[in-house]
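Hi Y.,

Following your request, here is the sequence exactly as I used it, all 378 residues.
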Amino acid sequence: MHLRSGVFLIGKSNSGGSNTVPMTEEELEESSPISPLVSPSPSHARNHSLSPGGVGGAGPSSPSGQDGNHQSGTVTPPPYSGPSTSSIQQVPPPQPKGPQKFPGLPKLDYRLYSPPLFEPSADHTTIKSTAPYLSTNVTAMVSLIRAQSTIPPKPQVHVTGKRGSHKIDFAIKLNLMPLLVPEDPKQRIDYIRCVAEGEVAFRGGTKPSTEPSVGDAGLEEWVRRFVHDSHSIKSFTLERVVANLDVNWLEGQIRSMIASIGYKGIVTVTFPVTHAKVVVQNPDRVNKFFTGITSFITGKNKYEVVKAVWPFATHKNGEAGRRCVVQSEETWWREWRDVVRYAIATKRQGWVTNEDKLESIMEGVGKGLSTVDWGPDS
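Below is the corresponding structure, written out as tokens. Let me know if you'd prefer a different format.
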């Protein structure tokens, strides 16, 4: 049996045992709109024949090697009807391994900011877990700390202007995290730092101290001490910190710019850091309320001995040999000065983003702005 564009041609089997009645040539011509079958070329037979007598098979050729479909020395391929695309099972593309990449954002594994069994604080500065497998397993705890050290905190600059007791004229925020992550991961200079000899810190007690010391044992030894601490309430904290960013210079530039547009109110400039702490605490023995009461009475053994350091630059501003990870404070301010000025002049309350920067670059928004009419003080 041959399938030709949806028409079934039934003939005798080779063994002569067919129970079908062969059609005459006249019946075949009347029942089928298909032109007489042709014998494909050898190359065509190789490409289209699935099996002897299967799809793409050919009928006998004429003695001259030509038929009604053979014109100008070429052979028209036999008609063929393949399966519709809807009948073909759609196979989803393979998912890329590793963290997802987001164009325009620093190359980081953002899943690590929300690990399983952790809860964020309301101000997004801290995530905390009381999962038993962490406070009782040295290997799991060390792995967690190393993984969480590979992502930076989110440093910001907040600028607020207020007149009178309640009137807020502007309150803008800018994200400085991209200044900590170079485009090329090989250029990163972040590192893990354990508390130094003689440095005051929470070393497993209820108060800061310079003792005990673990010498050169480092992270693994501090984690081992935490896991084997039998105190009823204990916590271990990893803190992400920003190093060598000259916030004083940036604050001075911001205040000078605001004064230049005639603002007479009270200006506040702060540099908060969110996503800065990862805290692991042993599980509540009864509930959070009971843990709080117990902590108030007996205290909590705190281990705050490990920091993930994310330098803005290799040295402090003004020191010889200084190299910034992405760009200097001066370059950043030069790129954002007009953007910040326009946001303040239009009394923005919210984030100033790359979209504002793009408008400044493409359309000149904020350039040439001098003074602003701030209206009455109350």
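The radius of gyration is 37 Å.

Thanks again,
Q.
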